[in-house]
Amino acid sequence: MKFFKKHKGVLMWILFGGTMVIVFLLGLLAASINERRAEIATLFANKRVEIKGIESRSEIWGENYPREYETWRETADTNFASKHLGNKFQDVLEERPEMVILWAGYAFSQDYSAPRGHAYAIEDIRNTLRTGAPMTDDDGPQPATCWTCKSPDVPRVMAETGIAQFYSKKWAALGHEIVNPIGCADCHNPENMNLTITRPALAEAFTREGKSIEKSTIQEMRSLACAQCHVEYYFKGDGKYLTFPWDKGTTAEAIEEYYDEEGFTDWTHKLSRAPMLKAQHPDFELFKLGPHAQRGLSCADCHMPYKSEGAIKYSDHHLVSPLLNIDRTCQTCHRDSKENLIKYVYEYQDKVLEIRDRVEKELAKAHIGAKDAWEKGASEKQMEPVLKLLRAAQWRWDFAVASHGASFHAPVETQRILAHSLDKSYQAQLEIQKILTSLGVNANYPMPDISTKERAQAYIGLEMKELNAKKEIFKSEIVPQWIAKAKENKRLL
Ligand code: HEC
Ligand code: HEC
Ligand code: HEC
Ligand code: HEC
Which of 182, 243, 275, 317 is the most exposed place for a label (fewest CB within 10 A)? Predict the structure, then answer.
């Protein structure tokens, strides 16, 4: 008691302070519970429609989740351009005509434009010359496998017809079925809105590695949802079965080894006759090797930042360059100015692109040199090492470049791959010069004028006028039929 009396003032203050701390902590807890509840409320309280099975029409999901839906619709914006990327339409062959030479004999030499928002996935695959101008269901150059990363109608049709049956059809045969661009059903289970894997190829690659994709954490799923499409893949065998070539690992070298062992070739180069590989878009594979993935970040951390509306916090579904919203992306972790953060990104990109531009020139030169060597009478045996080098050089270039975000996601790895590509391009040129010298001809082979897309396409013998005219007929006659049929069948709202 004596002690209490003596220290009464101090003790009262301690008691008061303690109470305040508890009140403060309780307040925090309540706030966080409220926030959680608000989040859950957005999930379930507004459930106006019951969604069953695979509902590929995102408009219907929008009734329940208006915020996510409205931001998802913003992927149709085409107003953002950063220094090198963005969502504006960009004809890449026009800007870098050497690529026409690199893809000679393959459909990419006809047409290649930069990726845009998810809202354009269907429109762009219909419009590209690469899918040709099919006039009937079993006409045209491509299998239905080409639809796989474009639409939530894909898992729907797969569920209806079977996976292998889906891939073995022709692309045009599903033109009236695959009509909604990438949407809710591609990534979500409608019952609980959990992220889910709808593309069999990703789950199958995990199974072959002895792993189960169902055991992934939420943070992993925030990347794996994207890895359904933003990855390297190929069409295996006659059934064109979509397969991820990951059995030996996911680096450029491990995937190359896999393809070499399978004896897989995408096409034979028209000029050099090299057995070529086409890289798709190994965004996920390269991202994993960069500084952010190694600190545990996922794609959604930068491409789907949180957005607040009053007490409600939700994920921005406008998938786009993170540079559009630096305050909600980079700056949630980095205490640095907007200007500096943009500068870091551009510096990484500029350095990678410096080497990329060199590779494209030297690799194009090597293909043209190989053509010259064949014409001057080089033998298959003489050319063998040249063709191997060309395949390896171009694989590395494509792997680094087709992953559009890689120069920022994993700058060191991307530069490493490009450096090897440049080295192999020069080695190929040296071999060609040795062959030409041994044949007693001038080793300084002449370079054609490939300064524009049109000139480069004419040089490799493409009849672009004819291709474009056929495509216009396809767009004005066949596509409207597909859309009308889809509407009639209620596949499209
Ligand atoms: C490309 C994949 C993808 C697509 C397409 C997609 N989402 Fe999401 N969605 C995500 C990711 C990733 C999250 C974050 C999940 C987490 O952090 O647990 C998310 C979260 C959500 C949530 C939980 C609350 C929130 O905002 O974080 C809702 C609800 C949701 N999405 C609705 C939709 C709707 C409606 C559509 C279609 C209009 C849609 N999503 C399309 C990937 C996608
Ligand atoms: C179902 C396949 C699919 C899924 C799943 C998917 N994407 Fe895409 N993504 C695409 C396609 C196809 C394009 C190109 C569309 C076009 O150009 O018409 C694209 C384009 C993009 C772009 C370029 C947008 C622009 O404005 O230029 C970004 C960024 C992107 N995706 C990020 C992501 C992220 C992050 C995820 C996971 C949360 C994801 N995507 C999931 C298929 C997919
Ligand atoms: C640390 C942040 C960060 C993370 C995490 C991240 N990205 Fe990116 N991403 C960027 C930046 C920055 C760019 C370059 C944007 C620019 O130049 O406008 C970019 C570019 C892209 C592009 C090209 C966009 C275009 O306009 O063509 C795609 C596609 C992409 N990222 C997909 C992914 C995928 C898939 C993942 C996960 C495997 C991922 N990103 C993870 C920051 C990130
Ligand atoms: C969710 C948190 C988070 C976000 C969002 C994020 N970063 Fe980072 N970033 C990190 C962490 C963690 C590191 C590693 C820091 C370290 O080791 O010192 C890092 C490293 C970096 C580095 C140094 C890379 C290196 O080579 O070590 C740069 C540059 C960078 N971030 C830029 C950006 C930019 C630009 C954005 C937005 C497009 C961004 N970050 C978004 C967390 C984040």
Answer: 275
